[in-house]
Amino acid sequence: MGNILKCFTGEDDHGDDDYYRPSSGARYGLQAGSDHGHGPSPYVDVDQPAAASRPHHDVVSLLQDLLYFESTSMVPEALRQHVTSSKKAQVKWYRNILEAYNNMRPQPKTPEEAAQLITTALSRIQRADLLGILSFYNLPIPFPLPTVASSASSDHPPSSLPEGVQFVLNTLPVHHRCIGDGDGFSAYVDTADPRESANVALEVHEMVIDRTQARTHRDYQKARALLRSLDEAGYNRIINISGEEILAKKYRIRMRGIDAPELEMTYGKESKDALVKLIGGKRVTIHVYGLDQFGRYVGDIYCDNVFVQERMLKSGHAWHFKTYDKRPEFAQWEREARAAHRGLWASDNPEKPWDWRREQRSSNIQVY
């Protein structure tokens, strides 16, 4: 880290100049119940809340923070007003930035160079958080922002996708409450995904930052209002397995080529339960072919190396939707289930879901 110290003063020897002044530590906050110079360290632990002030934002502030992080593993307390991820995540960020700084030649001295350092080191974090940390140091936003290849989508390069597939979604784990019936569900995609990050509107980023600041100031009414606005815009806050809150885009999915009994129909609950067992709590890959008349994304679903529609048809939990899908293997999988009297085919004459919906609509009951 000697190179960081040189950046504060240049290559010349300035004698008694301080490289890191204790006064800048105010940005890390005071530990609750401690006094200056007495008792525990006056700097908060990364997991403790504290009030903080930030007198200035610039390249020198970034370098000071990196120097202090190297010796204490503490991050600036005021950063939480600009980003949404946890302190634990922030520690990982500064570790990555510090490593990138030590490997960078020459070291950054201008705002543009410092911004490039951060965006390169943090290319895999959420776009909103990346913009937040650049804003925290008052650094310019490089254009275009760097993107990384998605490891999940690398298994399905464009050349190997079936004809008609418009794009691929790699989702967060599907919550069982987001599964409506045996052929439809809602899924969320992390906005850190390269495909998503480029499509998040600036207004959404601003709502996320405003909500974080509202919660910091205990203005929970405003925070709830902003959360509703995010939901109306098609986004939500999701807690991942690491306990970090992330921004995710919501997609309503209609499984292509099958039609399952509606929940109100005979065998509707069993069909839904079968889909919950296949994808509930798991990440899925969706090959999207387009939108249906209700605004749902129609696609083929893959989970744990299983083609979900195939499993639903073979187990007798859905019909082949011949009106919209002519794939012969789908017809064959349905015939197998019929012959073995599996699932809904245990009945001699199960009601067809499209007939049931037609009857509901004729009675002015809205169904999808």
Automatic annotation (TrEMBL):
Residues 21-43 are annotated as: Disordered. SUPFAM superfamilies: Staphylococcal nuclease. It comes from the Eukaryota. Residues 179-347 form the TNase-like domain. Pfam families: SNase. SMART domains: SNc. This is TNase-like domain-containing protein. It comes from Urochloa decumbens.
